[in-house]
Write a structure and sequence with these properties.
Layout: E1 4-11, E2 15-24, E3 27-37, E4 41-43, E5 46-48, H1 51-67, E6 75-79, E7 85-88, H2 109-116, H3 119-126, H4 135-145, H5 147-151, E8 155-158, H6 159-168, H7 175-178, E9 184-185, E10 190-191, H8 193-198, E11 214-218, H9 221-227, E12 232-235, H10 240-246, E13 256-261, E14 265-271, H11 278-283, E15 286-289, E16 295-301, H12 305-318, H13 323-332, H14 353-363, H15 372-398, E17 404-408, H16 415-425, E18 429-431, H17 436-448, H18 455-465, E19 469-471, H19 476-490
Length: 492
């Protein structure tokens, strides 16, 4: 078998990487080529993505790959976070920098839209978790606050598709990223034009939806000259969670919960068809799109965002601190003294996260953490317990038991959190691969190149190529008592 080389660009909400994948003799390997920060920029009261800088970093990744002797790339794929987009004029030019989903643009937007169109109707049509920053609500907010911007818009293009457009000159819209928008109709399997028209959004600005695993075009000639790479650009699962779920090495028919654990924690399971129900609406579960037009039935949980913000805040005051030191301090802090709901809107925006945690504890009549280890322990225990809460809801909705939890992503490196999670769930937790998003991106490219017959064969190769670590519960009874207290706090 000839060696295949694929280049993956994985953009997260805080950083990005270019990773080289090499596939030969049934083994897949990953090598990081380039890493960079993704820092949204606040200007005149709004938070924007620095999209041109992000494209510059993409080109640096291509240049570094060429310099490292990898000009013979077979294909390139891009995945990013969900929901966010750019607006283009009739010439295909950017009208503005894209809003970042944590911006204040959509504050109060769910309540405002609900007065015109019941949120339950939107959920029933689209099956997507109702969160204020979903694409639909960003658009209604722009229409209300900046109508001239929307009036000048000829095309809306999601972030991964925008970067593909910059590379090839071809516009597209991949299924998994479209499904995050609250604008995709589950029954029609296409844009919900009726919904958009009811809210005053012109459906004509949306490009046709296509699946992952197709060639979008080759790099533009000027980019070939600049970077030294001449390769095809492949449509992968443009939403990073779609790519991550494709890399979960589960077996066909396995009954497991899945967790993509990073800045966000995306907890759910893979289904062949969407589920829309009263229980799903109550627990606010989402039907997001995956490879082969499968459904990722999941809930977005705030994830390691809070932990990372707390770490950054302490470092600004006290200097750099290693994860090893922080984890030691967490384990030395008292257990189960207080809890937060990681998904409380209080924790959505950046900055002052320590103050917010203390404020939440005080407001709910709990012990208030003071030291670095105490604050971090409250955050991590609460996240593990929120996973239990989400799985309880998932099992109720599906009417079946999920025997294990499979975890992929950077959170696998957090041993404390994984041990906490096994105990909070009272079940086995299987961790790995860590670089799941990049691996899933590579997998879609390899599927498009004909290297695997289907996603199940690909997952078998992934399981044989990358390490997995198993955590068993060791103190489930104590954690069950803590869960009862946690549940009482967040359901008040």
């Amino acid at each position: 078998m000839a060696k295949r080389k694929i280049l993956t660009f994985d953009y997260g909400a805080t950083s990005g990487r270019a990773i080289l994948g090499e596939y030969e003799n049934g083994k897949l390997t990953c090598t990081e080529i380039h890493r960079f920060q993704n820092n949204p920029v606040e200007i005149t009261g709004h938070l924007y993505w620095d999209i041109l800088r992000l494209f510059h970093e993409l080109k640096q990744g291509l240049i570094k790959a060429a310099i490292a002797g990898h000009k013979d790339i077979d294909s390139i794929g891009i995945d990013t976070w969900g929901v966010d987009f750019a607006l283009l004029d009739e010439n295909g030019m950017l009208l503005a920098n894209p809003f970042a989903y944590r911006d204040c643009l959509t504050d109060g937007e769910l309540e405002r839209v609900d007065k015109f169109l019941p949120l339950r109707e939107i959920y029933d049509r689209t099956g997507i978790q109702l969160i204020k920053f979903n694409t639909l609500f960003q658009l209604t907010a722009i229409k209300d606050k900046y109508p001239d911007l929307l009036a000048r818009t000829k095309k809306l293009i999601f972030i991964p598709d925008l970067l593909n457009y910059f590379l090839t000159g071809n516009m597209s819209c991949e299924f998994s990223i479209a499904s995050t928008s609250s604008m995709y109709n589950l029954e029609k399997k296409d844009w919900d034009t009726e919904l958009l028209e009811k809210l005053g959004i012109d459906p004509a600005i949306l490009p046709p939806i296509t699946g992952a695993g197709r060639v979008l075009g080759r790099l533009l000639p000027n980019l070939v000259e600049e970077t030294g790479i001449d390769a095809e650009v492949c449509s992968v699962c443009g939403h990073d969670t779609g790519s991550a779920y494709l890399a979960i090495p589960m077996e066909q028919g396995e009954s497991c919960a899945c967790l993509s654990c990073g800045t966000w924690s995306l907890l759910g399971t893979e289904l062949e068809a969407p589920v829309v129900s009263d229980a799903g609406f109550r627990y606010n579960y989402a039907n997001e799109g995956g490879y082969d037009f499968t459904t990722r039935y999941l809930k977005n949980i705030m994830g390691l965002w809070i932990y990372g913000e707390v770490k950054r805040e302490f470092e600004r005051r006290e200097g750099d601190v290693s994860y090893d030191v922080l984890n030691k301090e967490i384990m030395e802090a008292p257990a189960f003294k207080a809890f937060i709901d990681p998904d409380d809107e209080l924790f959505m925006a950046p900055h002052r996260m320590v103050e917010k945690i203390k404020s939440y504890c005080e407001k709910t009549g709990q012990w208030v953490p003071q030291t670095r280890g105490e604050v971090m322990r409250v955050a991590q225990e609460s996240l593990a317990l929120k996973y239990r809460y989400a799985i309880d809801g998932l099992e109720e909705i599906l009417g079946k038991k999920l025997d294990t939890m499979r975890v992929v992503g950077g959170g696998c490196n957090n041993v404390n959190l994984m041990e906490f999670t096994a105990n909070a769930l009272g079940r086995k937790v299987i961790c790995g691969p860590i670089e799941a998003t990049a691996i899933g991106n590579m997998t879609a490219q390899l599927l498009s190149l004909g290297e695997f017959k289907d996603r199940w064969e690909a997952r078998k190769v992934i399981g044989e190529s990358f390490e997995q670590i198993v955590y068993e519960p060791t103190d489930a009874a104590t954690w069950a008592d803590a869960y009862a207290r946690f549940k009482a706090i967040i359901e008040k």
